[in-house]
Design brief:
It contains three helices and no strands. It has 78 residues and is an all-alpha fold. It holds the Pfam family DDE_Tnp_1_6.
């Protein structure tokens, strides 16, 4: 629509979209390349949906465990 085009060409929208591209699109690319989401061996919407949900849950667990195990970069006390 015209209103979207008017907003889409602003510098603020371009900056926001660049940020989105760095975060969201990277997540989907990692799922596809590193976690086997390029192809599925399952047939049917329910089975494929379950596979996708379990894959993204595993990715979130992996990310969370890395955040928990990561050493703090600074401390308020020391």
């Amino acid at each position: 629509s015209r209103s979207f085009r008017r907003v889409a060409y602003t510098d603020a929208f371009k900056a926001l979209y660049r940020k989105r591209k760095e975060t969201i699109e990277r997540c989907f690319a990692d799922a596809k390349e590193k976690h086997g989401m390029r192809f599925t061996t399952y047939r049917g919407l329910r089975k494929v949906t379950l596979q996708a949900m379990l894959t993204f849950a595993a990715m979130n667990l992996k990310k969370t465990s890395l955040m928990v195990l990561e050493k703090p970069r600074f401390s308020i006390l020391f």
